[in-house]
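Q: Fold this one first, please.
A: Sequence and structure below.
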Amino acid sequence: MTGQRVFAPLCGKSLDLLWLRDQGLEVIGVEISELAVRSFFEENGLEPEVVSVNDHDQWRAENITILHANYFDLQPGDLGTIDAVYDRASLIALPPDMRAEYAEKMRELVSIDVPVLLITLDYPCHQMSGPPFPVSRDEVEELYGDHYRIESLTSIDLLSDEPHWREKGLEELTETIYLLGR
């Protein structure tokens, strides 16, 4: 995948952007918070070039571009060619009433032939009020099943490795990694 472009929606200041870049990928993210965009570059010692394009600013440095924009306002031309999507914490950051719109917007922005790596968390919703919000396999099927083949790559019990979740009141917490493709 070296040289390919990966889209990271609602990226915040995730260190995953650096990891993806270090794998030889060109990374393009979108983030509504200018503070998060600025902090990402500052905290990682990157000197961005900031360019205004359409209704948003593009912050670029060392094969990472973050669009300071509202994801829901993006147009397909804003991203250019995308070879993969990395949804590490976007879907789970959104309350349930926004997820269908999020999934529909993704289909508008990115070709249906582009693979999506989707990482979700699932837990009993009465045990914690997100974010992150729980997203079940059934919901993934409901949001993406009509357009993608959904493959569950792995599921991990996070409570054993990350006890801070127990402190938030969770008795169950499963991270599932899905590959959405054609």
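Q: Good. Now the second chain.
A: Here it is, same layout.
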Amino acid sequence: MAKKTHKSSVASLPVLPAIAVAEAVRAALSEDLGRAGDITSMATIPADARAKAVIAARKPGRLAGMAFAERAFAEIDPAVIFKSLRKDGDKLAAGDVVAEASGPARAILAAERVALNYLCHLSGIATETANLVSLVSHTGARICCTRKTTPGLRAFEKYAVRCGGGWNHRFGLDDAILIKDNHIAVAGGVGEAIRRARAFAGHLVKVEVEVDTLKQLGEAMEAAPDVVLLDNMAPATLKKAVALVAGRAGTEASGGITPPTIAAVAETGVDYISSGWITHSAAALDLGLDIVIEKTSRQAAKPRK
């Protein structure tokens, strides 16, 4: 029987807590505005000038981070009207307009960089994830992120992975047990480490163990882990590992996996493929803000001769 493929998770994205988004945006705006605010706009733009801004994709990709953009404008000035035209998880073509903002010109310009920083960074992660998901769509493998994230942005970067159709691995050291090579070295062996973890863990806590040889995998399976992380194994070895596990535990491939090699890894039958670079090294998606100044009554008045 053919292995069932997983449907994309984009249709059912998790909702980021509004307070987390607000706190992150406030911190970013505070960093950018510094001690005196946007002195360039204050020096060059009249206080009563109004503007309309259009945020558009300059390259194709996958959108993520709209809540941050909307919050950036609202935090600077509630008088700015922000209109979302696309939603997180949407596929973008070059030129697609994702949002409009209108209101006080100074406020729009002050919020511009923070809004774009979040949008470009998170959309870049979503885009890279979507690319990997498409490369393994003919298999049952799920693309997962890791804890290799930007300090302070983990929840947001993991959210962006979901926007790209990927799945989240553990969020921190406290929500699952992942026994790695150094734990095994200190514990005295694969089996002993798993047995200790089983004795410690609550009934809702999963136990995963990392192995890098088929011999280690055999020892691990005797102790019945929930998931085995098959680290840096070639596709031929991965296929043998999946056969050895025989459905008794989840299988996860990791280590040195790139777009050119990921399809071969997925075709071995592993359940999950974890990638650190989709969060720590994904290139930002190019989105830009173009602004058209609406003339004030003073600007529109013709000078008398």
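Q: Anything worth noting on the second one?
A: Confidence is low (pLDDT under 50) at residues 1-9, 297-301.
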